[in-house]
Amino acid sequence: MPMDERELGQRVKALTKCVAANEPPENAIKLLETLKKDASPTEEMLRATRAGVFVGKLRSNANKDIARAASELVSKWKKLVEQEKSSKLQKSKVGSGSPAPAPASAPASSPAPPPSSSGTSGAKYKGDVEKRKYETDNVNVKRTESSVRNSCIGLIYNGLAYRSTASESDVINRAIAVENAAFVKFKGETPDYKKKMRSLFTNLKNKSNRELGKSVLSGEISAEKFVVMTDDELKSEEQRKKELELERENMKMAQVPQEQKSISESLECGRCKKKQVSYTQAQTRAADEPMTTFCECMACGHRWKFS
């Protein structure tokens, strides 16, 4: 029986936890091979579960076997999506006797920037990728009647172009698509729209998150998906791993026996229900996150924590 969207999501979630927890490589490889064998997802399933995004990031994993297995899986899924699109196109032609009509234009209330005159990719960029900007690439970012929107197109262009060899036409087309998706999502030039544009630019320029820009440029992450990704979703696998290691280290430090503990008369033990609970607090995560409270029942010895 083919794997459905729910099961695919569960498998990908398990794979995410496995990699983030730095489990033995064999565990991740086994999960990847299972996905390769059992899953034949549609494009819609891949987008809904973000399976393509996460597995795509694993292609640059430090472990060569994980990277290889991830690359093979992505290759298989790409072929399936291409076959799906080809099949839909053929059905459309057979049903209408003519090529499928062009997609409808965006609503008048949120006009899309004018499309590129060419849909083909240009030659790879051969200049200094560290200093790429739309100004140095001689790219015109004035694609709308709004100076704010044009500035945002330029901002996203600079983020996507950073350390990329993609052609100017590919970068500007994706920058236009991203800006337009944000304009539609946040209903115009709102504070949320501007804040999101700055956030996306910052994440694209993060040197430890190079795969993000590649995924957006390749279409692996659609413009519509990109503009609604959370800060955590935008992080690279490396960033998540570092944060997990930091949290573990802080947890160890926080659990070192303390000389003095506070006794609370309001905290109740979940096991014996008595209100004889001692507690300590420690910062186990980022400085702006809530402190973690470590509790111990003085009556039965039950321990727990919360934040």
Automatic annotation (TrEMBL):
**Cellular component, GO, one term:** nucleus
Task: Summarize the protein's role.
Answer: Necessary for efficient RNA polymerase II transcription elongation past template-encoded arresting sites. The arresting sites in DNA have the property of trapping a certain fraction of elongating RNA polymerases that pass through, resulting in locked ternary complexes. Cleavage of the nascent transcript by S-II allows the resumption of elongation from the new 3'-terminus.
Q: Where is the sequence biased in composition, kind Pro residues? A: 100-116
Q: What is this protein called?
A: Transcription elongation factor
Q: Which segments constitute the TFIIS-type domain?
A: 265-305
By its UniProt entry, which InterPro entries does this protein fall under? Answer: TF_IIS-typ, TFIIS/CRSP70_N_sub, TFIIS/LEDGF_dom_sf, TFIIS_cen_dom, TFIIS_cen_dom_sf, TFIIS_N, TFSII, Znf_TFIIS
State the coiled-coil residue ranges: 227-254
